[in-house]
Amino acid sequence: MKRTALLILLTITAISKVSAQGHGPLYGLQTPTLAKGGFDFNAAAMSLATEDDQSFMLRYIWSYGVTEDLQINITTPTMVNRLSEAPRTRGNNNMPANGDIEASVWYRFFSNAFGVGKRFESTAILSVSTPTEETRGGINLSNSIHGAISTGYASRTWYAWVGGGYQYYFEKDNDQLGDLPYASLVVGYRPNIFMGDYPKPDWRVFLESLAEFPGASMNEGQISPVDQRGKKVMIGPSFLGLYGAWGISFGALFPVYQNVVQDPQERYRLSMNISYWL
Amino acid sequence: MKKLGIIVVLSIFSFSTAMAQLVKVDQEVFGMDCAPCAYGLERGLKKMDGLQSVKVSLNDGKAYLKLAADNDLSLQKIQKEVKNNGFSARSAEVTLNGELVNDGNKWSVSVNGETFKVSLDTPDDILTKLKPGKVQLIGRVKDEEDDGLSNTWNIRITEVL
């Protein structure tokens, strides 16, 4: 209860300071980039529950549109409760659910706006991150690089994005976190009752799914005896509400398949995000 | 009498300045799907000098701009702002004041450094009534590639006011 109150308090504090970005899905990869010269701020509260424990984290992301197709971001965490045995995941592809500070570049390399409210576009993401903790799951942590690509369709009614990414942690003191290939698929829908014109509130619902394949970590120079890539598929709903410069999104992911011999089993992921476009 | 003369001169001057400008632009915008998109575009357009009002409609996919008197805004600048917001500026319906000139049976209107060439699909009954000189007209400006915007446009006149 005390932990929850602290989480809410910290979120409210964060929100009162600024605002954010959260134009698309909460967990999956997306494609939209900011306007040229646009700036936005996101504050997110995130939680990841395993069979043993539950993490709580606040995360902030500042984004700036260098051009209408090129966006730079930096995201920093405030860890409220870390997992001693953390599953290998990014958690949320746009804002990692682990304790990393991450800087990223989004490049929308393809865009075809072919109708009123309609467009196809593709975006590539390259990021570098540095951990805020010494070890994760007993493995010494180092910096990492992450790359992803996503493509999708947006309209006034339907949305769909598909993408995939890869994160690689460097070796540190004979330890190395396993790599993480992943894929995401998101479908979104805006019901008719929310088709009111700007500046009326704008809501949509997403069905999000993530597939993650964490590689085995190296501990003291030794690859885990179970040298087997884990497999995990998570699915869940998220909701996005937009009004003027503000956005709020919240949602959850639940495992529908897990085969992670090395990591703890996940139970769910929760996330809430407040966005403000400056 | 002298005062009256000054007023007449100033009136003529302000009239001639007002003649060469955009009055109203209904700009079609493709790819704009959400409230923050509309908010961002509206805010970007409002930053431009010379606007009286701006309204963005997601459902119409349009930005409705009324321009202030004595503005020096160009359609190129408006469409560039749309592009900077990540969308595609398509055709536009404009109301403009300008100087209509005829060069070898080709009509064009000059407005704030931009040339609007009257397209041949303008209805004949309008084409036959065109006369060189100052004019106020309504027309549909045809879509140009967002990456290759110039100060020359093709316009299909729909009404001469």
From TrEMBL, chain B:
Q: Which UniProt keywords apply?
A: Signal
Q: What is this protein called?
A: Heavy-metal-associated domain-containing protein
- Signal peptide location in the record? 1-20
Highest taxon of the lineage: Bacteria
Indicate the segments forming the HMA domain, all copies. Answer: 23-90
Per its UniProt record, what Pfam families does this chain match? HMA
Query: Where is the chain membrane-spanning?
Result: none
